[in-house]
Amino acid sequence: MGWEKAVAVSELPENSRKVVTLKGNKILLLHQQGEIYAVDNRCPHMKLPLKNGKVTAEGAIICPFHRSAFELSTGQVAHWTPWPPVVGNLMAMASQPKALPTYATKVEDGSIFVNL
Ligand code: FES
């Protein structure tokens, strides 16, 4: 674990997001409600990209594929593969819910750093 410089703060204004590659991992940075989050860009369900996932008012990101939802601050599963109807429930039964990896962030000298 160590702090990796990701982007300049100015590159991630409020309500924006950006995917960066750090130590070979695709990390999704989000600036939401005054907080900067860093999460794995791959959904733990089928490793598909989360980049275009909607963020709820409660601070969870919803995977655009089967709508699993994960808390941005902790990565905890809020919902596991509820979509599409019937098929989503079958997929949920066939797999164990897995948390989304999250990483600490800090702002220093005008840059965003991620601890990974
Ligand atoms: S790939 Fe994200 S919920 Fe299936």
UniProtKB/TrEMBL annotation:
Single GO term (MF): metal ion binding
Protein name: Rieske (2Fe-2S) protein
Pfam annotation, one family: Rieske
InterPro entries: Rieske_2Fe-2S (IPR017941), Rieske_2Fe-2S_sf (IPR036922)
Keywords carried by this UniProt record: 2Fe-2S, Iron, Iron-sulfur, Metal-binding
Domain of life: Bacteria
Domain Rieske: from-to ranges: 4-114
Keyword match Metal-binding: yes
SUPFAM superfamilies membership: ISP domain
PROSITE patterns: RIESKE (PS51296)
Species, as recorded: Lyngbya confervoides BDU141951
